[in-house]
Each structure stands twice: as C-alpha cells, then as structure tokens.
Design brief:
This protein is an alpha/beta fold. It is about 40% helix and about 20% strand. Helix 4 packs parallel to helix 9. This is PurE domain-containing protein.
C-alpha cells in the first residue's frame, strides 16, 4: 500500500498516523474548496475521520453539503468528520485570558479533543482580574498539561507557569492594541518568561499547542502501558 497518493495538486499523506501517531490534518486557509473536498474524501476513506483547520464559513457550508456528517465550529473555524475518541488518561486544560482570544483557544481545545485528549476549558481569566484565575487554582493544579492562550502582554502564561508542576504551552494571540504588534509583544514576553518548564508556539497557533499537548499525553499513556505490560 502506498504511503501517499498524488492527486496532482496535493500528495495525500496516508502514513502520517503510522509515523507520528495522528492522521494528516488539512490546513484549509488558502485552499480552494475544489482542493479540500477530494483530500477530505481520501483521508476519510483511509482513516474514517478528518480535521480541517482555518476553514472560512462560506467554504464550510459547501463542504457540509458534500459531507453532511461533518460538523463545523465557527469560533475555531474547524471542520470535523468523525467523532473524537478518548485515548489518553489525564486532562488537558485550555485557558484563555479574554473572550477575544477564544478563536485560538477553541482551535486548541477542539484539536486536542480530536486527537484523543480529555479537555477542560477555563476562559476569561486574564491577569487584569487575577482573582478570576486564582478562584480555580485547585482545578489548574490538577491538569496534566496546560495550554495558555493570551494576547495583549501575554502575562497569563507566566502566572500559570508559576502555579503548576506540569508542562505549560503558551500561545500568543494577535489580539491587542498598537504596540502589541499583532502578537509580537506577547510572543517575545512568553519566550522571555521566568516561569520554568514553559514552551511557546507561534502566534495564534492553537493547533500547534494542542498537537504538542497530545504528543505529551500520548507519551505518558504509552509509558503507563509499557510499565503495566512489564509488571
């Protein structure tokens, strides 16, 4: 069986799941519906599920006619075919500083769920009203991996990083005023954070943060399984 199929405009990677643990995900922005549709069909045929990120509503409406069992989330702009299956123990918590950051936070949350993670959400807990965050301190410290989404100066990630003993994945967003520079300011702030154990993904990259979180959860799950098998 071939590892990929050449459609002329695209080479569909069927071996991605075997190599990396998760099937190929389609990045929808910039792709025409005429290109997304056949790629979706091929991946569904091979894997029984597919996720398309960054899909405009107009494109999603056309694709839903072709794939009526698919589901579209307008906040994250994600189109899903196939129900998520919980594969890992533990929990990924997605935190968002403000409501304006939800388009990135939901991209992270939905992606992590699709990849088999149990996900909890804690939104609108930015440092401008830090009591809102601290009210959920017990829940925060119980999470296995934390994805922290913030725009403006990006301070939420550092605060959360100082509260937990678990991996923190920081996601800067393009939400903010002038000198925020469309995400550059929180990106640099997060990369310069004094909170240990924190990693940073690109601006607005909720998908990348979720993928990293799922890889961590997968590794832990495999380790537990290995120890059980050996014993």
């Amino acid at each position: 069986m071939e590892n990929f199929e050449d459609l002329g405009f695209s080479k569909v990677d069927y071996a991605r799941e075997e190599r990396q643990g998760f099937p190929e995900v389609i990045y929808g922005e910039g792709k025409a519906v005429e290109h997304i549709e056949p790629i979706m069909g091929k991946l569904i045929e091979r894997h029984g599920k597919v996720m398309v990120t960054r899909v405009a509503k107009e494109k999603a409406e056309i694709l839903l006619e072709r794939f009526p069992e698919a589901v579209y989330d307008s906040t994250s702009r994600i189109l899903l075919y196939g129900k998520p299956v919980l594969n890992f123990g533990g929990e990924v918590m997605v935190l968002a500083a403000g409501t304006s950051d939800l388009f990135v936070a939901e991209e992270a949350a939905i992606t992590a769920e699709w990849m088999g993670c149990k996900v909890s959400r804690l939104y609108d807990v930015g440092v401008a009203g830090i009591d809102r965050l601290l009210a959920y301190r017990d829940d925060i410290t119980k999470a296995s991996v934390l994805i922290v989404v913030a725009g403006m100066e990006g301070a939420l990630a550092s605060v959360v990083g100082g509260l937990v003993q678990r991996p923190v994945i920081a996601v800067p967003t393009s939400v903010g005023y002038g000198t925020h520079f469309e995400g550059i300011t929180p990106l640099l702030a997060m990369m310069s954070s004094c909170a240990s154990g924190m990693s940073v993904v690109n601006i607005d990259n909720g998908f990348g943060a979720a993928y990293q979180a799922a890889m961590i959860m997968k590794l832990v799950s495999e380790g537990v399984h290995h120890e059980t098998s050996v014993s």
